[in-house]
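Customer escalation, tier 2.

The customer says the design service returned an amino acid string that "doesn't look like it belongs to this structure." They asked us to rerun it and document both sides in this ticket. The original structure tokens are below, unchanged.
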């Protein structure tokens, strides 16, 4: 039995891929393929099962993980996942597909651990990362961390380790082998027209089922108006430790009201053209090495056009009436 693991990383279309797999779960099963998960499609249990240290995050809180029960939870998740794999194998299925964007943040030791564990249960394991141009991913990430993690700074171009794509892919390639790494390119980062779901199907060897699977209509995480993002950031400034505590129902409801208070995302958070280009340039050598390794038929890994950005960075400002509308809606919708 073979396994294909989509590892994200975050802000590269994972929700769309997971929605596609969920929608087609029964049809995949009929064709001998299991979309493996425990509670949710993002399979965060798998990420925590192989983590090296406890971190207090929203995901860990949602799974009931604490510093006290951390090791117990890890072992519990491994046992549950192992039982599901055994059941799938007993049913005669030939392939397992996993989508867990949290795996994109694993370190070398954690990747080695998941490699040993997986190859005790599968004959072949393929890794599917999605590569997105760094400035575009950083911009999308900024909106997410303001909304969900209490980010305070008005700075939309901030990188994490896995923005360096050569470093990111090499971690996995050194352990799983180059031939088992099957990267795909995010559609907004290339000059040609691409479809994320179709590319994922090709990487996970599902293209032969394209006539029976639902392929279209899986775009998720639509844009949020920049004014809504700025309102959330201002709230974060008033409560800078918000990210350290669980996002309660009141805050979730308020965030949703803020998101929906603007009928259409007319104003965008944008870095300046110069800022975006300079941010991207820091990864250009890394991108070229990835192109040589995995995309030799391309002249360059990503489209290098920055005319989508303004000359001056733009962080939309909200008006008093925007706040008044949110307040009235909040009061009238109170449970």
């Amino acid at each position: 039995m073979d396994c294909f693991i989509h590892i994200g990383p975050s802000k590269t279309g994972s929700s769309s891929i997971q929605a596609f797999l969920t929608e087609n779960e029964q049809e995949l099963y009929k064709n001998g393929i299991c979309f493996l998960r425990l509670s949710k499609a993002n399979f965060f249990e798998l990420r925590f099962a192989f983590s090296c240290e406890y971190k207090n995050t929203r995901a860990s809180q949602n799974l009931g993980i604490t510093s006290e029960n951390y090791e117990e939870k890890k072992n519990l998740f491994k046992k549950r996942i192992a039982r599901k794999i055994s059941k799938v194998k007993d049913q005669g299925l030939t392939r397992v597909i996993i989508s867990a964007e949290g795996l994109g943040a694993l370190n070398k030791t954690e990747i080695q651990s998941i490699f040993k564990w997986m190859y005790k249960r599968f004959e072949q394991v393929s890794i599917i990362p999605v590569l997105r141009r760094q400035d575009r991913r950083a911009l999308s990430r900024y909106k997410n961390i303001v909304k969900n993690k209490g980010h305070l700074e008005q700075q939309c171009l901030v990188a994490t380790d896995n923005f360096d794509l050569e470093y990111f892919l090499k971690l996995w390639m050194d352990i799983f082998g180059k031939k088992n790494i099957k990267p795909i390119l995010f559609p907004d980062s290339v000059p040609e027209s691409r479809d994320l779901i179709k590319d994922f199907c090709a990487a996970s060897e599902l293209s032969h089922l394209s006539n029976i699977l639902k392929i279209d209509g899986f775009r998720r995480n639509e844009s949020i108006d920049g004014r809504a993002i700025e309102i959330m950031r201002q709230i974060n400034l008033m409560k800078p430790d918000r990210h350290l505590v669980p996002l309660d129902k009141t805050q979730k409801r308020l965030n949703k009201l803020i998101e929906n208070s603007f009928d259409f995302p007319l104003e965008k958070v944008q870095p300046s053209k110069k800022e975006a280009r300079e941010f991207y340039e820091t990864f250009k050598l890394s991108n070229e090495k990835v192109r040589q390794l995995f995309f030799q038929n391309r002249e360059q890994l990503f489209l290098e056009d920055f005319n989508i950005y303004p000359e001056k960075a733009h962080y939309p400002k909200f008006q008093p009436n925007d706040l008044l509308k949110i307040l009235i809606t909040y009061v009238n919708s109170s449970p």
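Tier 2 assessment: The sequence is consistent with the input. Residues 58 and 245 are 8 Å apart (CA to CA). The longest strand covers residues 124-131. Sent an explanation to the customer and offered a walkthrough call.
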